[in-house]
Specification:
Largest sheet: 5 strands, antiparallel
Oligomer: single chain
Low-confidence stretches: none
Radius of gyration: 15 Å
Shape: globular
Mean pLDDT: 97
Strand content: 25-35%
CATH superfamily: Gcn5-related N-acetyltransferase (GNAT)
CATH topology: Aminopeptidase
Bound molecules: coenzyme A
Distance between the termini: 34 Å
Number of strands: 8
CATH class: Alpha Beta
Helix content: 25-40%
Number of domains: 1
Number of helices: 5
Length: 174
Protein backbone atom coordinates (compact mmCIF):
# COMPACT_ATOMS: atom_id res chain seq x y z
CA UNK A 1 0.00 0.00 0.00
CA UNK A 2 1.35 3.42 -0.94
CA UNK A 3 1.84 6.12 1.65
CA UNK A 4 1.57 8.84 -1.01
CA UNK A 5 -1.07 11.51 -0.35
CA UNK A 6 -0.42 13.75 -3.36
CA UNK A 7 2.36 14.89 -5.67
CA UNK A 8 3.47 18.28 -6.90
CA UNK A 9 5.93 19.09 -9.65
CA UNK A 10 9.01 18.69 -7.41
CA UNK A 11 7.65 16.94 -4.29
CA UNK A 12 6.03 13.76 -3.10
CA UNK A 13 3.80 14.43 -0.10
CA UNK A 14 3.32 11.31 1.98
CA UNK A 15 3.06 9.88 5.45
CA UNK A 16 6.09 10.28 7.71
CA UNK A 17 7.92 6.94 8.02
CA UNK A 18 8.95 5.30 11.27
CA UNK A 19 12.63 5.34 10.22
CA UNK A 20 12.60 9.13 9.72
CA UNK A 21 12.62 10.10 13.39
CA UNK A 22 16.14 11.52 13.16
CA UNK A 23 15.09 13.92 10.43
CA UNK A 24 12.04 14.89 12.50
CA UNK A 25 14.30 15.60 15.47
CA UNK A 26 16.74 17.57 13.32
CA UNK A 27 13.83 19.69 12.08
CA UNK A 28 11.96 20.34 15.34
CA UNK A 29 15.00 20.66 17.64
CA UNK A 30 15.95 23.89 15.81
CA UNK A 31 14.79 27.05 17.52
CA UNK A 32 14.55 28.88 14.17
CA UNK A 33 11.76 26.40 13.33
CA UNK A 34 10.23 25.63 16.75
CA UNK A 35 10.00 29.27 17.88
CA UNK A 36 7.05 29.83 15.53
CA UNK A 37 5.00 26.74 16.46
CA UNK A 38 2.23 26.07 18.96
CA UNK A 39 0.80 28.08 21.85
CA UNK A 40 3.99 27.78 23.87
CA UNK A 41 6.90 27.22 21.49
CA UNK A 42 9.35 24.55 22.61
CA UNK A 43 12.19 22.89 20.74
CA UNK A 44 12.15 19.09 20.56
CA UNK A 45 14.82 17.62 22.81
CA UNK A 46 15.08 13.88 22.26
CA UNK A 47 14.75 11.10 19.73
CA UNK A 48 12.08 9.60 21.98
CA UNK A 49 9.96 12.74 21.57
CA UNK A 50 10.42 12.49 17.80
CA UNK A 51 9.37 8.83 17.87
CA UNK A 52 6.20 9.62 19.81
CA UNK A 53 5.41 12.48 17.43
CA UNK A 54 5.85 10.35 14.30
CA UNK A 55 3.70 7.56 15.77
CA UNK A 56 0.98 10.06 16.65
CA UNK A 57 1.03 11.62 13.17
CA UNK A 58 0.99 8.23 11.40
CA UNK A 59 -1.90 7.05 13.51
CA UNK A 60 -3.99 10.20 13.04
CA UNK A 61 -3.14 10.38 9.31
CA UNK A 62 -4.49 6.86 8.87
CA UNK A 63 -7.79 7.83 10.51
CA UNK A 64 -8.58 10.82 8.26
CA UNK A 65 -9.27 11.22 4.53
CA UNK A 66 -8.64 14.95 4.40
CA UNK A 67 -6.55 15.94 7.39
CA UNK A 68 -2.91 15.10 7.91
CA UNK A 69 0.60 16.07 8.89
CA UNK A 70 2.74 14.81 6.03
CA UNK A 71 6.37 14.60 5.00
CA UNK A 72 7.36 16.62 1.92
CA UNK A 73 9.95 14.57 0.01
CA UNK A 74 12.01 16.29 -2.68
CA UNK A 75 11.73 14.15 -5.83
CA UNK A 76 15.17 15.18 -7.05
CA UNK A 77 17.13 13.68 -4.15
CA UNK A 78 14.68 11.98 -1.77
CA UNK A 79 15.45 14.40 1.07
CA UNK A 80 12.49 15.19 3.32
CA UNK A 81 12.31 18.99 3.22
CA UNK A 82 9.72 19.39 5.96
CA UNK A 83 6.13 18.98 7.04
CA UNK A 84 3.01 20.27 5.37
CA UNK A 85 -0.22 19.99 7.31
CA UNK A 86 -3.92 20.33 6.76
CA UNK A 87 -5.77 19.94 10.05
CA UNK A 88 -8.77 21.29 11.97
CA UNK A 89 -7.77 24.41 13.90
CA UNK A 90 -7.51 23.86 17.65
CA UNK A 91 -10.29 25.77 19.46
CA UNK A 92 -12.02 26.21 16.09
CA UNK A 93 -15.51 25.22 14.94
CA UNK A 94 -14.33 22.67 12.40
CA UNK A 95 -12.43 25.11 10.19
CA UNK A 96 -9.21 23.77 8.66
CA UNK A 97 -5.75 25.32 8.68
CA UNK A 98 -2.88 24.74 6.28
CA UNK A 99 0.65 24.93 7.71
CA UNK A 100 4.34 24.41 6.86
CA UNK A 101 7.41 23.52 8.91
CA UNK A 102 10.56 23.19 6.79
CA UNK A 103 14.17 22.34 7.53
CA UNK A 104 16.47 25.33 6.97
CA UNK A 105 18.37 23.27 4.36
CA UNK A 106 15.22 23.45 2.25
CA UNK A 107 14.25 27.11 2.72
CA UNK A 108 14.40 29.60 -0.14
CA UNK A 109 13.53 27.10 -2.88
CA UNK A 110 9.76 27.34 -3.04
CA UNK A 111 9.05 23.92 -1.48
CA UNK A 112 6.77 25.27 1.27
CA UNK A 113 4.58 27.20 -1.14
CA UNK A 114 4.51 24.37 -3.69
CA UNK A 115 3.51 21.69 -1.17
CA UNK A 116 0.99 23.97 0.56
CA UNK A 117 -0.64 24.65 -2.80
CA UNK A 118 -0.93 20.87 -3.20
CA UNK A 119 -2.38 20.50 0.29
CA UNK A 120 -5.01 23.12 -0.47
CA UNK A 121 -5.92 21.35 -3.74
CA UNK A 122 -6.17 18.07 -1.81
CA UNK A 123 -8.50 19.68 0.75
CA UNK A 124 -10.70 21.31 -1.89
CA UNK A 125 -10.91 18.05 -3.89
CA UNK A 126 -12.16 16.41 -0.69
CA UNK A 127 -14.90 18.99 -0.21
CA UNK A 128 -13.42 21.75 1.94
CA UNK A 129 -14.96 25.10 1.08
CA UNK A 130 -12.36 27.26 2.81
CA UNK A 131 -8.98 26.87 4.50
CA UNK A 132 -7.27 29.23 6.95
CA UNK A 133 -3.67 29.87 7.98
CA UNK A 134 -2.61 31.46 11.26
CA UNK A 135 0.80 33.06 11.62
CA UNK A 136 2.61 34.96 14.35
CA UNK A 137 2.64 38.64 13.33
CA UNK A 138 6.46 38.79 13.25
CA UNK A 139 6.88 35.59 11.17
CA UNK A 140 7.65 37.37 7.91
CA UNK A 141 8.74 34.20 6.05
CA UNK A 142 5.45 32.46 6.80
CA UNK A 143 3.35 35.52 5.98
CA UNK A 144 5.19 35.62 2.65
CA UNK A 145 4.09 32.02 1.98
CA UNK A 146 0.44 32.98 2.65
CA UNK A 147 0.78 35.87 0.21
CA UNK A 148 2.43 33.68 -2.45
CA UNK A 149 -0.54 31.34 -2.08
CA UNK A 150 -2.85 34.29 -2.73
CA UNK A 151 -4.59 33.95 0.65
CA UNK A 152 -6.78 36.84 1.81
CA UNK A 153 -5.46 38.72 4.86
CA UNK A 154 -8.21 38.96 7.49
CA UNK A 155 -6.25 40.74 10.23
CA UNK A 156 -5.43 39.63 13.76
CA UNK A 157 -7.31 37.13 15.86
CA UNK A 158 -6.87 35.64 19.32
CA UNK A 159 -9.31 32.78 18.72
CA UNK A 160 -6.68 30.08 18.11
CA UNK A 161 -3.62 28.79 19.98
CA UNK A 162 -4.32 31.20 22.88
CA UNK A 163 -2.22 33.93 21.26
CA UNK A 164 -2.64 36.78 18.80
CA UNK A 165 -2.09 35.64 15.22
CA UNK A 166 -2.52 36.96 11.69
CA UNK A 167 -5.40 35.14 10.02
CA UNK A 168 -5.44 34.23 6.32
CA UNK A 169 -8.16 32.48 4.30
CA UNK A 170 -8.51 30.90 0.88
CA UNK A 171 -11.30 29.20 -1.06
CA UNK A 172 -11.38 26.97 -4.16
CA UNK A 173 -10.80 28.77 -7.45
CA UNK A 174 -14.17 29.34 -9.21
C1 LIG B 1 7.89 29.57 6.78
C2 LIG B 1 8.84 28.75 5.91
C3 LIG B 1 8.20 27.42 5.56
C4 LIG B 1 9.07 29.56 4.62
O1 LIG B 1 10.01 28.87 3.82
P1 LIG B 1 10.49 29.48 2.42
O2 LIG B 1 11.45 28.54 1.86
O3 LIG B 1 10.90 30.90 2.63
O4 LIG B 1 9.14 29.54 1.58
P2 LIG B 1 8.85 29.12 0.07
O5 LIG B 1 8.77 27.69 -0.10
O6 LIG B 1 7.64 29.89 -0.33
O7 LIG B 1 10.11 29.64 -0.73
C5 LIG B 1 10.14 30.97 -1.21
C6 LIG B 1 11.54 31.38 -1.52
O8 LIG B 1 12.12 30.44 -2.41
C7 LIG B 1 12.59 31.13 -3.60
N1 LIG B 1 12.56 30.17 -4.71
C8 LIG B 1 13.68 29.61 -5.26
N2 LIG B 1 13.32 28.73 -6.20
C9 LIG B 1 11.98 28.74 -6.27
C10 LIG B 1 11.04 28.02 -7.07
N3 LIG B 1 11.43 27.13 -7.98
N4 LIG B 1 9.74 28.27 -6.87
C11 LIG B 1 9.32 29.16 -5.97
N5 LIG B 1 10.17 29.87 -5.17
C12 LIG B 1 11.49 29.64 -5.33
C13 LIG B 1 11.68 32.34 -3.67
O9 LIG B 1 12.25 33.36 -4.44
C14 LIG B 1 11.60 32.72 -2.19
O10 LIG B 1 12.82 33.31 -1.81
P3 LIG B 1 12.88 34.65 -0.90
O11 LIG B 1 12.34 34.27 0.45
O12 LIG B 1 14.31 34.97 -0.88
O13 LIG B 1 12.00 35.65 -1.58
C15 LIG B 1 10.18 28.51 6.62
O14 LIG B 1 10.77 29.75 6.91
C16 LIG B 1 10.03 27.70 7.90
O15 LIG B 1 9.88 26.50 7.90
N6 LIG B 1 10.07 28.41 9.06
C17 LIG B 1 9.99 27.78 10.37
C18 LIG B 1 8.63 27.20 10.67
C19 LIG B 1 7.51 28.21 10.50
O16 LIG B 1 7.67 29.39 10.76
N7 LIG B 1 6.35 27.72 10.09
C20 LIG B 1 5.18 28.53 9.93
C21 LIG B 1 4.44 28.70 11.18
S1 LIG B 1 2.99 29.72 10.93
Amino acid sequence: MTDLVFETERCRVRDWRADEVERVLDLYRRWEVARWLGSVPAAMESIEQARIMVERWRSSNSEHDIAGRWAVERKADGVVAGTVLLVPLPDGDGEFEVGWHFHPDSWGQGFATESARGALAHGFEHGLEEVFAVVRPDNAASIAVCRRLGMAELGRTSKYYRTELELFRTTPAP
